[in-house]
Amino acid sequence: MDTANVDGSGASSIFRALLTDITEGRLRPGDSLASEQALMERFGVSRTMVRDAVSMLAGIGAVDRARGRTGVIQQVDSSTIGHLFPLMLRLSGVESLREVYELRRTIEGEAAARAAICATPEQQQEIAQCADAYEQAARSREARSEQSQEAQYIDSDVRLHLAIARASGNSMFVTLLEILTGFLRYVQFQTCRDNLERSRQASLEHRGIARAITSRDPDAARVEMSHHLRVSQEALEETMREQGR
Prior knowledge:
Elements: H1 11-23, H2 36-43, H3 47-59, E1 63-64, E2 72-73, H4 78-92, H5 94-118, H6 121-144, H7 150-167, H8 171-179, H9 181-192, H10 196-214, H11 218-242
Antiparallel strand pairs: 1-2
Helix pairs in contact: 1-3, 2-3, 4-5, 4-8, 4-9, 5-7, 5-10, 5-11, 6-7, 6-10, 7-8, 7-9, 10-11
């Protein structure tokens, strides 16, 4: 029985162990995942736990179950990792949340500061337009009270953050933020779906960031972005407490 790779006997621990096998190359794209029985014996768990763990892997695109009963390993890329962040947050809770936000503040705070220096007039205009689009989508959703508007303000939030990353002139900021896109969407959905006040507040924060960038003030852009992400983190932590996670 392989107990070294498993912290406890839950499906989430099996998921982590198998994902580590994939990312470290012990399981390669095209390999078949071991049978349910073999995984049960390896980890000393029930069939249900094995199936739940494999479902998690399939959920982030690391395993294709359509090609076999247990599954075939897929290429782990930025899209896979992007889906991983919301899942890891649900599995690990507030501690993972804080670590991701620390990463975001490091990446996006500096990206905003560099955008204030490097953005072209066209990029400045795009950032301002993205901030406008978020505000308009949030207002439309509030006025109509329709969940169908959720996709619009979530998409506009992601577009704004990516536009700022592109305007920084550093392609790695863009790549790293694309990896975090799944997390960005998850945060917007969780914090704003039942909280219109948070949508209004986020609109003001977006405008502050855009204003600092278009004013060519890197220090203010960094501060505004850091403030926005700290408020977002607090809102998500509060949501998780209310949901009893």
